[in-house]
Each structure stands twice: as structure tokens, then as C-alpha cells.
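Example 3.2
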Amino acid sequence: MYGKAFAPEYQGALTTLSVNSSLTDVLAAGTEQLRAAERSGARAEAARSGLAVAEAHRRLGQVADADRAWKASYRTAREAGDTGAMAWALWSGGTLARQRGAFPLAWRLLRLAAELGGQAGDVVVRGYSLAGMAETGRIQGDYAAVTSLHEQLLAEARKRGEARHTVWALEGIAQIHRNTGAYDTAYAMFEEAAEIAARAEDRRGHAWALRGLADIVSVRDQDVDRALDLLSEAEVSCRAMNLSGALAYNHKMRGNVLYRAGRYEQAREVYAQALAEFEAMSEPRGRALSRLGLVKSLARLGRDRAETAADLAELARVLEGIGLRHARQMVERARTELGLTPESEGADAEAAR
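Structure, written as C-alpha cells:
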């Protein structure tokens, strides 16, 4: 049985904040409490308030502010001798590093956060940090290395009855199944995640689960209307909470759904919107994936083949530079789909003689 979702990253005087609080409200409350704690010399409280500030900035896509905030929270926690708060700050920094595409740094910070969380006896930050490591590996495409960790964390979350963490783990495993073609299993796990999140009033987790369901419905069932309806439902929550990153990924998925349905002009517009959103928050992975969708849409709309091939070659370098191990496969699939493989180019030349 799962209880109502809570946000353990909102600590100290900010524990009254809801997991569904608007991020602008979180930032305002966190900043106010941080200043009050600094004035009174309450370093431990300042570190914990600073964590909420860092997380609000990160989720709003304000990367530079988030980077300054988590580092300040860590320094203050260290001065206060608060090992648990140090772990939470490192978790925030590691999560930000992953968001920025700095995967080696994300691994280091999250591993340190898990170690400090264990030393402090804080099972929640330890679990969140291990979860962050698992998600980092999953995003990089290293499924073999992190699947068992995902499953371990899911079992631990179920045992504790922690809804938010259970939802996260279900969504991570579901994404692995989706990416390896096990659509039915992925759908069932996304569906369970959506149900748990809805009952626990976890709007963020629910929005991500709906995005996953929309993807499966589009790929497996080719049901465009239902997929778009699911994404529209998720978008309401993203906007209500000012979830900039989740909203941008929602839009990228909308572009995927429209592209698969052959609605290339609409897909082009949505991919361009998502690209602008990712650029505004300096999110390299989302930016590259949106560019890939945009390049494919433009190719379908008659763009010059040589220009398309050049863009795909550049994107292959960008994606590999980010550290996405399956990047080459993604670009190769795009080349094959658009008839830009060496074999197809040779056939075109032969036919033109």
C-alpha cells in the first residue's frame, strides 16, 4: 500500500511544501528561508533550504543558478558538519550534471552522494543517489549494467511503500523494455506507474508515465489520437508545476508521434518548439534529439539530401560526444529510413545514368 507522495528534497522549514508545488513557489519560499537562515547563522538550515533552491532552479532549466545553488548548499553543509545535507547537495549536483549531459561528472557526484548518505544513515538520499546512477546508465544506453540496479531499487521502494520512488523505478525499467522492443511489458509498467502516481497525487511522476504510455500507443498501436490525448493530459501537469524539462520532453514526444503518423509539417513545428525549449535550458541531450527529429522531418518535406546527410553526420558526432552509446545506431536508423545509406546512394546514382 502506498501513501501520498512527498518531496524529501524539500527539507527543514520547507517540509510543508508539496511534491506538486509550483517550482516558482518553491524557489520563492526556498530563497526566503535561505536568507533567513543565513541571517540567523543557522548553517544546517541554510544548507537544506539551499537544496530546494538548487532543485527549483534545475527543474526550471536555470542551469547556472542551479549550479551555484547546489555548490553553496554543499559548502554550507560541510561547514555545519551535516553529512546528510552534504549527500543531498551532491545528489542535486549529480542530477544537474546528468541533465547537462556531463555523464562522467554525474556518476562521480551521485556515487559520492550515495556513500555519504550511507554514512549519515539517510536511506532516502542513498536510494535517490543510486537511482540517479541507474538513470544515468540507462540514458547512456548501458542497459546491462543498470537493469539489476533499477530492479533492486524498485523492490526497496515497494517494500517501504514509497510511491514516488516506486513510480520512478517502474518508469526506468519500462523505458528499457520499450527501447529493447518489449512493448507489452513496457506498457504494463508505465500503466502501473501512472496508477500509483495518480493515487499518490504525484503529478510529476504521472506526467512522465503518461508520456511513456503515449510513446507505446504510438509505436505499438499506431493510435495517434490517443497518444496525443495522453500527451495533452501530461502537459497540463507540466505547465501547472512549471516543469520546463518535462514539458520540453513532452513536446519532443509529440513530435515523434506526429512524425510516425506522417504528419511531417506538424512534426517539424513541434520539434522546432522543443529544440528552442532545450536550448533555453542548455540541455544537450534533448537539444540533439530534437534536432534529429527536425532533420528527419525536413528531409521528408523535400530538403536537399546532401544537407540532410551533413546534418546527420554532425549529429552523430554530437550524440557520441555527449556519451550516448546508442547514438550511432540512432543516426544509422535515420540514414536508412531516409535512404541515405551508401547502398541507397549507389542505387540512386545507377538509376540516374
